Amino acid sequence: MNPFSYVTATDPAEARSLAAEGAKYLAGGTNLVDLMREGIETPERLVDIGRLPLAGIEDLPGGGLRLGALARNTRVAADRRVRDRYPLLSQAIVNGASPQLRNRATVGGNLLQRTRCGYFYDRHSACNKREPGAGCDALDGFNRMHAVLGAGESCVAVHPSDMCVALAALDAVVNIAGRDPVPLVDFHLLPGDTPHVETVLRPGELVTSIDLPPAPPGHSVYLKVRDRASYAFALVSVAVFTHLEEGRASRVRIALGGVAAKPWRAYEAERLLAGTSLDDHLIDQAAELALADARPREHNAFKPELARRLIRRALKGALS
């Protein structure tokens, strides 16, 4: 591990002033510390933000809910307001990691965790995300876990979060100190020519909380397919929310995980289903439309069909 300095911050303004170029914020550390052990992250300074007053879960005027960036995943998943009003989020968090990790991991850390691509973690492999301009060994390597949507020739890594897939379906908003809130669906970036730039955050910026809008009545389902039941990362996951009025869908949200560098909203499929009775034929059409632009590689050609089946199952489950 490379030498680094360690400082603690007592308020958000101090944290931002301490987070100079080459610094990283430390909260739960469940991802950052691993990356430092592997030599992937080599910060010159760690700014410990664990003492900042950002761990609360607060009701918002109008019926929404604010999740502090330092709220532990276990606390969020178990909160009665989350379980009653946003069960989709609770389901996703519980599916995301073991209890030990959830007890330590934070909302902000989950949002900002980095890809689990094996080539990213291997310093001897070419990885544009780790070293811009180096190339991407995953393109022609073992790419079973990799992206089928929104990827290019620079990077095919996927974002590993379960929580963020649910937040995308719930129209969550990310609050950042010193700037306007950012919709979660716009917070993470597709790789393009700069796969090392993963979010809209600028150096030193600090996520303070995530806001959930008032929860409309409806039904939600979170489904995740993984190689083993014991807290593996998703091959494909789907978060679905539906609300019907007089037998027709007044609100449909479909978000996918494990298929792109960010939580993937299936907007065209949502538009197709809006205002309809969500019959089997339309659900099949929506599933096809959601994966119409999929571009699988050698080892993940199964992912588009797997995603289609999960979308069908989740929508029918929400309806039932």
UniProtKB/TrEMBL annotation:
SUPFAM superfamilies: CO dehydrogenase flavoprotein C-terminal domain-like (SSF55447), FAD-binding/transporter-associated domain-like (SSF56176). Its EC number is 1.17.1.4. The keyword Transcription does not apply. One of its GO terms (molecular function) is xanthine dehydrogenase activity. SMART domains: CO_deh_flav_C. InterPro entries: CO_DH_flav_C, CO_DH_flav_C_dom_sf, Diverse_Substr_Oxidored, FAD-bd_PCMH, FAD-bd_PCMH-like_sf, FAD-bd_PCMH_sub1, FAD-bd_PCMH_sub2, Mopterin_DH_FAD-bd. PROSITE patterns: FAD_PCMH (PS51387). Coiled coil: none annotated. Signal peptide: none annotated. It holds the Pfam family CO_deh_flav_C. Residues 1-217 form the FAD-binding PCMH-type domain. The keyword Zinc does not apply. Keywords: Oxidoreductase. This is Xanthine dehydrogenase YagS FAD-binding subunit. It comes from Nonomuraea jabiensis.
